[in-house]
Amino acid sequence: MLKVKSVVKEFSGFRAVDECSFEVEKNTITGLIGPNGAGKTTMFNLIAGSLKLDQGEVYFSEQKVNNFAPHQIARLGLARTFQIPKTLRKMTVLENLMLVPSGQSGENIWNSWFRGAKVENEEKVNAAKAYETLEFLEMEHLADEMAVNLSGGQKKLLELGRALMAEPELILLDEPGAGVNPTLLNKIAENILKLKERGKTILLIEHNMDLIMNICDRVIVMNDGKHLVEGTPAEIKTNPQVLEAYLGEKTA
Ligand SMILES: Nc1ncnc2c1ncn2[C@@H]1O[C@H](COP(=O)(O)OP(=O)(O)O)[C@@H](O)[C@H]1O
Ligand SMILES: [Mg+2]
Prior knowledge:
Blueprint: E1 2-11, E2 14-24, E3 29-33, H1 40-48, E4 55-60, E5 63-64, H2 70-76, E6 78-80, H3 93-98, H4 109-114, H5 116-136, H6 152-165, E7 170-174, H7 182-197, E8 201-205, H8 209-215, E9 218-223, E10 226-231, H9 233-237, H10 240-247
Helix pairs in contact: 5-6
The structure holds adenosine-5'-diphosphate and magnesium ion (MG).
């Protein structure tokens, strides 16, 4: 589904990602872990097209997508969430979902002038999809709540919902469990497992080791911008190299 080959990204001479390679199998949940500053979020930005690679290759479903623009990669079926949720606070939960761009005719000025009926119909479909997404997340009761009033965990769920509106094949989640209370954390874990049941592929950055160990099929460990090791959660848990990397953690 996803292949990253010898990827390099430098920021003013500092190698944030250093010849990093890994693969993500279709219909799996893969964890991407490593100490702060290991290069995980930078790797997500490179995959999703929000940063340009200095070297290396990224393949999405066998197609080379090096330096595609974010919207081009999104159209191929990739969605991502951010470490800090990007919800639009002055809108309701439902509006936040309905606003996700999806190449509707309403975005085209000519269509909105000449094909009003089509746009209206698409808006209905879009609203139905947004409700369906809320149902999936078990957040229907919050449809008309202003996003600003949500708890941190609920914002994370909404962020996941926004990613799902694009009906992606591969979903990149950056720390979905950060700052989330245990009840909502379980819900996020359940939702990620449900997505896998629906055939989706998930790559997940997370510091909560219980979440990683409970839901991941495979775990990839990054350190100093490099691919350190990978394996099953049980293998990673007992790997001395991983322990050493975390003990040497710098605060980034
Ligand atoms: N835009 C940027 N400019 C300069 N340095 C950056 C930038 N983004 C990330 N870095 C640096 O790259 C390294 C990796 O960061 P990041 O990918 O955010 O790590 P992680 O997500 O694993 O904690 C860190 O040392 C960070 O300070
Ligand atoms: Mg990060």
